[in-house]
Please model this.
Amino acid sequence: MPKIKTRRAAAKRLRRTGSGKFRSHHAGARHIATSKSTKRKRGLRKATTIAKADQRRVDRMIPY
Model:
């Protein structure tokens, strides 16, 4: 059986944790920051885990 190709776009945006979950950055942190509160912007800086509903799909994108 041939090896599965990794989706390079997903590999650049996500990384796997030790427990097998995926870490990613928050959306909405790039521009139009003046309308967002300081607390909100500070929270957007931190990485987050992807939703459980997306876990299976991302697992196929990044098999190794």
The mean pLDDT is 95.
